[in-house]
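Sharing a chain and its predicted structure for anyone who wants a worked example. Both blocks are below, sequence first, tokens second.
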Amino acid sequence: MPELPEVEVVRAGLERHVLGATITRVDVLHPRPVRRDPGGPAGFAAALTGRRIKAARRRGKYLWLPLDNGDAILGHLGMSGQILVQPPGSPDERHLRVRFALEGAAEGREMRFVDQRMFGGLSVSGGGADLPPEIAHIARDPLDPEFDDDEFVRRVRKRSSGVKRQLLDQGLISGVGNIYADEALWRAQIHGDRPGERLAAAQVRDLLGHAREVMIAALGEGGTSFDALYVNVNGESGYFDRSLHAYGREGEACDRCGAPIRRIAFMNRSSYFCPVCQPVPRRRRVATQPLPAAD
């Protein structure tokens, strides 16, 4: 699934190519990607036709395009979604779902939503230009200038849940997914099952710093691509997968100590870690009450 760096690459591409453009036509080629829009395919198209795109914004893994009437196009890429900017004469992508014809700043261009697995989607957010109410509950991400480091550290250390589970909690910190959580934990030499309450404040700050560093590095290389499903608006894949130290490297030697990287099941996904650099935390002993004496 695209994570913060991949979504930010798409957002930045849209900012370069579609700002100031007016949407002249919307073709919904499959209803599923607009399933969350209360107006359905016809209402979605009608609400956006004639509207001008004023900005391209992101919170965590969500994108939105503020419009000139105060509404916004809200989007999530899901597992395989792509937002491409193409010349109108170019061949349709195999999994093209929604097409936007543009005029003005993007004269002669089309914005296309392509999604093979169709877990992603688009909708019109009424009054959502500043922040769509549908995503107001999502926390800021660590690259947001207004992210509160002190509050994050405090909240992590109050919880007994494993720190990787907390990194994936979009109500606590947004944009961090499975790949970058594993990479940040490897860099910080912390096992993902380590309870937050058993981490020192300095360890949590160090982990947060590594999460920032790994995502900034990924941004510099266009994101992480393991297949052709993740691309930027020009259809180009990122290259950060070549720089990963833990994720997807089961059985390979740890770049720090040489021990084989391990993979374990985690929340219907996989976690990758070094068993030497990131030792599995010891389980706490649970005090038991003595059984009552038999009569």
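Comments welcome. The chain has two domains: 4-131, 149-273.
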